[in-house]
Amino acid sequence: MPNFTIKNANLYYADFHALKDINLNINDKDITTFIGPSGCGKSSFLRCLNRMNDLVEGAKITGKFLLGEEETDIYKIDDVSELRKRVGMVFQKPNPFPMTIYDNVAYGPRTHGIKDKKKLDEIVEKSLRDVAIWDEVKDRMKKSALGLSGGQQQRLCIARAIAIEPEVLLMDEPTSALDPISTIKIEDLVVKLKEDYTIVIVTHNMQQASRLGGHTAFFLNGEIIEYSRTSLLFSNPKKKKTEDYITGRFG
Question: What CATH topology corresponds to 2-95+168-246?
Answer without folding.
Answer: Rossmann fold (3.40.50)
